[in-house]
Amino acid sequence: MAQRHKAREIALKTLAEWDFKKSILKKDFVDIEEIINRNIEEVNSENFKENAFLRNIVKGIINYQTKIDKVITDFAPKWPIERMTIIDRNILRIGVFEMLYDKKNPPKVIINEAIEIAKTFGGVSSGKFVNGILGAIYESLKEGKNLL
Fold first, then answer.
1. Among 2, 38, 84, 132, which one is most buried in terms of CB atoms within 10 A?
2. Residues 93, 69: contact at Cβ < 8 Å?
3. How far is Cα 50 from Cα 37, in angstroms, rounded to an integer?
4. What is the pLDDT of residues 41-83, one digit of tens each?
5. How far apart are the C-alpha atoms of 124 and 120, rounded to whole Å?
6. Do residues 80 and 33 lie in contact, with contact meaning Cβ atoms separated by under 8 Å?
7. Nearest to 11 by CA among 120, 91, 123
């Protein structure tokens, strides 16, 4: 499995746990470093080479969560972010972060990765849901719209 794909999967696991503890358990502080380190250990950290990429995604999403969530909400007005599953909203956060802030990978690669991860970890319609929202965001970016 490609290293960046694995990094995105670990980012999803990390963000889902962080999101659950913050929103469901109402914890004020969640040690994101502890979650990242534990999740890397679970996948044999000796062979994992995308530690910086993973940390950049997770910490970037946490830093820009409000702006990222607003973009998602703008493109999914019938689905309030708190009604989305934890998995779907965090896959979307990863995709939006990569397209708007990280910009190290082509948008089509980012969308394809998000769809594959959604099919693996999400529900029956997660792949289509993620594809629809990230595809619309990509089209807006191609038109030169500033989404931030």
1. 84
2. yes
3. 13
4. 888 767 888 999 999 999 999 999 999 999 999 999 999 999 9
5. 10
6. no
7. 91
- Mean pLDDT taken over the chain: 94
* Of 114, 123, 131, 119, the residue nearest 76 (C-alpha): 131
Q: For 99, which DSSP code? A: I
- Cα–chain-centroid distance for residue 134? 11
CB 71 within 8 A of CB 147: yes
CA distance 44 to 117: 20
Residue 45's alpha-carbon distances to 17, 38, 81, 88, 141, in angstroms, are 19, 10, 32, 26, 36
Task: Return d(Cα 77, Cα 130) in angstroms, integer.
Answer: 14
Report the C-alpha gap between 33 and 53 in whole angstroms.
Answer: 14
Residue 52: CB atoms within 10 A of its CB come to 9
- Ranges of H-type helices in 76-125: 86-97, 107-121
Instruction: Return the closest-CA partner of residue 34 out of 17, 53, 22.
Output: 17
